[in-house]
Amino acid sequence: MAEFKCYICNSTVKTGEKFTFTKKGSVHYDCYVSSKRQQIGPEKTEEFRTLASLLDYSLQGLLNAMSIQTEKEEAAEAKRQSIQAYEKLAGDLTKKIEEL
Ligand SMILES: [Zn+2]
Q1: Ligand 1 mean position to 27 CA, how many Å?
Q2: For residue 28, what are the β-bridge partners?
Q3: What's the gap in Å between 45 CA and the centre of ligand 1?
Q4: What digits encode the pLDDT tens for the residues 28-43?
Q5: Residue 78 C-alpha to ligand 1 middle, in angstroms?
Q6: Could you give the number of structural domains in the chain?
Q7: Which residues contact 94 (CB under 8 A, 6 or more apart)?
Q8: How many A from CA of 81 to the centre of ligand 1?
Q9: Which residues span the domain enclosing 93?
């Protein structure tokens, strides 16, 4: 995995850690959510909580898919497609959180 640095805590994102991308770069899920929570108005708290949970699940799904070992070509293709789908979902959810 390529090395990414979290723009909030400045540490390197390690394999197995949940992270996402915003316009500012790569960021840990936990760092992102706790900093964003402080910027959200009370009227958007519930929406934020829902989107943050969905992002959490999609990033966990992504990590789970990445950790699967397979040497069969068709299964590897399914794994690749699953990773892509989770990445897209995580990207879309992050975008929605950014727009809150
Ligand atoms: Zn961080």
Answers
A1: 6
A2: 19
A3: 22
A4: 999 999 999 999 999 9
A5: 30
A6: 1
A7: 20, 21, 22, 32, 55
A8: 27
A9: 4-98
